[in-house]
Design brief:
The protein has twelve helices and ten strands. With 298 residues, it is α/β, with parallel strands linked by helices. A six-stranded parallel β-sheet has the order 7-6-5-8-9-10. A four-stranded antiparallel β-sheet has the order 2-3-1-4, sandwiched between helices.
Length: 298
């Protein structure tokens, strides 16, 4: 049996392609079961984040094309569309790659800490789905231990190098002072919570958090003196937002061009900083065409 890591990431593909091969949380279990149903695959784990989608599998043969063709078929894509953007590692090289990813050494932002939690979540989903066997199970447990040691024994974790910190730093390029600004954060996961914390530390004037579950939005926002709303209430609050940062696991667009265009009418040409951290994207790319919008993606 060979251990194979096959994937696509921010270095090998643009966000337009990464969002097409992302496997969102509600599809992970089905994808895992499909993978291990392939005759060549003995065990499998899927890591899918805003910057990468990776398959870690035990293969009975050395045909990585089996995984390439499955990934394309799962997303109803032509294999030739994704093949030039894929990378694969085998056995020891796959282990080294996994360790680099877990340690934040392969991240868009070097050393960002969220990836280890995302990897643990991937391991848990595979465990729950029953698609892990001895080899991958032990490898992931060892990886978690090594990643923790990397952060303990090196200086990589000493600086605030998270995506959330970078998001707030980028917003600083548009607004030098946050005291008179309103931020709308969409989502309620770890990245949004860290973003809220950084904005709060920068003395943000007002915070609104929107989430599919309003109670979760309220609980998160309350920690930072903010206000929580449901996704269906975004339209009523968007015109007030100077800063909009979105990071949900939605498979569909949250903010479309028409909604943002309507909100801009009440802003009188005041600029809006928007950052879409989600893959698939939460904000319609066409929003960037609107005047006074500064839209960034990963």
């Amino acid at each position: 049996m060979s251990l194979i890591a096959l994937g696509i990431n921010h270095r090998t593909a643009p966000v337009e392609l990464r969002e097409q091969v992302a496997i969102t949380g509600d599809r992970i279990a089905a994808a895992l079961h499909e993978l291990v149903a392939l005759p060549a695959v003995s065990e499998a784990t899927i890591l899918s984040t805003c910057n990468r989608t990776e398959l870690y599998c035990g293969l009975h043969d050395n045909q990585t094309d089996t995984l390439t063709e499955w990934l394309a078929r799962f997303h109803r894509l032509d294999p030739e569309l994704i093949r030039p953007h894929l990378y694969s590692h085998r056995n020891d090289d796959a282990v080294r790659h996994l360790l680099r990813v877990a340690g934040g050494l392969d991240s868009m932002i070097l050393g960002e800490p969220q990836i280890l939690g995302q990897m643990k979540d991937a391991w848990q989903k595979a465990t729950d789905a029953g698609t892990l066997d001895v080899t991958l199970g032990r490898l992931f447990q060892h990886t978690f231990s090594v990643a923790k040691q990397i952060r303990t024994d090196t200086a990589i974790g000493e600086s605030p190098v998270s995506v959330a910190f970078a998001a707030v730093s980028l917003a600083r390029q548009i607004f030098s002072d946050f005291k008179q600004r309103t931020a709308l954060l969409i989502g309620a996961g770890e990245t949004i919570e860290l973003t809220a914390r950084h904005l709060h530390d920068q003395h943000l004037g007002r915070l609104t958090v929107a989430n599919r579950t309003p109670e979760n939005a309220h609980d998160l926002a309350a920690n930072f003196g903010g206000y929580g709303i449901g996704l269906d209430e975004i339209g009523a609050h968007l015109a007030e937002a100077d800063i909009v940062i979105s990071a949900t696991s939605s498979s569909t667009i949250i903010l479309d061009r028409a909604l943002v265009k309507t909100a801009l009418k009440g802003r009188k040409h005041r600029p809006v900083f928007m950052l879409d951290i989600a893959v698939p994207r939460d904000i319609d790319p066409a929003v960037a065409e609107l005047e006074d919008i500064y839209l960034y993606t990963v």
